[in-house]
Amino acid sequence: MNTTIAYITFRGMLGRRRALLLFFLPAILLLLSLALRLSGNDGLDTGTSVLWTFGLAVLLPLVALIAGTGVIGPEIDDGQIMYILTKPISRTSVILTKYLCAVVLVAAFAALPVWLGGVIMLGPDSDLPVAFAVGVLLGGVAYSAVFTALAVASRQAVTIGLIYAMVWESLIGNFAPGTQVLSVQQWSLTVLDRLTSSSTVNATVSLPVSVALLVLVTAGSLLLATTRLRSLTLASAD
């Protein structure tokens, strides 16, 4: 990991307008959790539903999309990435640094708020907040790799990412069970299901398959991003 690139990336991410969404989205979850707690509607079923339908299915992919595309996409669009690529820094190091920055942002703006929202609704003794936070973090690891690769490969990364996260996973995945094996959300759900004793969470994809696909998708996406970044350098040089 290159600390200079990481510093520039974090400064750029938190200094852009899109950073407002990073704060706005988790704020909605926390305010909703607090409202449910104060109104007495914070039962196990309600808490699980909020963490699942908003935290895992909405907050996680949107934050990961903002972070994954934001850490490198704008630099490619405005040509600033070429300044970094002219330095004696390996393309693998550039991608890994950008990717790790995205993962840190997902941990801070998705996993942590999900855990805190779960604690507010269900209390510190419940194992659901930790389980959901771990599931969100693992999902963020895969999502961040996919969206970082998309940002390097296409200028339409945000649009493609939204179609995948909101259409494929949230709509098609819910109504066509056979597609759930190709869903990062479902892989994350499988892991968190194993971390909680609550019967309110039921995964449909097996744990070995989920873990294997999380690893393969993450590694494959990073490899693709690195390869595409090398091609970008050669194309610019020509």
Descriptors:
single chain; 238 residues; mainly alpha; membrane; transmembrane helix; transmembrane; ABC transporter permease
Can you describe this structure?
Pfam families: ABC2_membrane_4. This is ABC transporter permease. Keywords: Membrane, Transmembrane, Transmembrane helix. The chain is an all-alpha fold and about 240 residues long. It has one domain (about 5-235). Helices cover about 80% and strands about 0% of the residues. The protein contains ten helices and no strands. It has helices at about 5-15, 20-40, 45-70, 75-80, 80-85, 90-120, 130-155, 155-175, 185-195, 205-235. α1 crosses α6 (about 90-120), α3 runs parallel beside α7 and α6 packs antiparallel against α10 (about 205-235). The protein is globular and about 55 Å long. The model is unreliable at about 235-238 (pLDDT under 50).
In short:
This protein has 238 residues and is an all-alpha fold. The protein contains ten helices and no strands. The chain has one domain (3-237).
Looking at the structure, what is the overall shape?
A: globular
Tell me the number of structural domains.
1
Main sheet properties = none
Q: How many H/I helical runs?
A: 10
As residue ranges, the low-confidence spans are 234-238
| Rg, nearest Å | 18 Å
Note the run of SSEs as H and E: HHHHHHHHHH
Tally of extended strands?
0
Strand percentage = under 5%
Report the average pLDDT across residues: 86
Helix content: over 70%
Question: How far is it from the N-terminal to the C-terminal residue, by CA?
Answer: 29 Å
Class derived from helix and strand content: mainly alpha
Pfam family, one: ABC2_membrane_4
Transmembrane segments: 51-73, 94-116, 128-150, 162-183, 203-225
Keywords: Membrane, Transmembrane, Transmembrane helix
Protein name: ABC transporter permease
